[in-house]
Amino acid sequence: MNIKYKNCKTFCSKEIEDLFLSVNWVSGKYPERVVKALSNSSKVISAWHNEKLVGLIRSIDDGEIMAFAHYLLVNPQYQGHGIAGKLLSLLKEEYRDYLYFNIMPDEKKNVTFYEKHGFKLLSDGAAMQIKNLG
Fold first, then answer.
1. N or C end of the chain: which has fewer CB within 10 A?
2. Residue 106: what pLDDT?
3. What CATH code is carried by the domain that includes residue 65?
4. What is the DSSP letter of 76?
5. What is the C-alpha to C-alpha distance for residues 2 and 11, in angstroms, rounded to an integer?
């Protein structure tokens, strides 16, 4: 499978809607907001099969010390081909000189994937969130 990886922040709403809804993420119901969020992100790396957006990872950083990865997703039709790992590796390379590169998996089942890619669970940390869908 020939997958191309791009550093870009410009997407059309339909591409984003299709990708996010393919993994049943509620943010797929708000594609215009996601497009805006991506354009305001520090870095965005996307995966393409021909003209189809099949995966994406984004980050937010402070420009020097700390970066947070968010939105690592791959269309289920393309999972199992190493796309998520490649996206994560490309983003890790972007932050190789930062002191901290953080990820907060939304689902515990994904922890082993991130551990496989060098992340460690914080021994005394806890993820916290306020969810506003209104």
1. C
2. 76
3. 3.40.630.30
4. G
5. 20
What's the number of domains the chain is made of?
1
Position 131 in a domain? no
Is 112 a member of any domain? yes
**Residue 6 burial (CB count, 10 A):** 13
> Residue 61: inside a domain, yes or no?
yes
Whole-model pTM: value is 0.90
Sign of CA dihedral 47, 35, 76, 127: positive
Task: Report the candidate in 51, 54, 56, 68 with the shortest Cα–Cα distance to residue 9.
Answer: 56
Could you tell me which residues are beta bridge partners of residue 59?
Answer: 43, 69
What confidence tens digit (pLDDT) does each residue in 49-66 have? 999 999 999 999 999 999
User: Which residues touch 23 (CB under 8 Å, ≥6 apart)?
Assistant: 73, 74, 75, 76
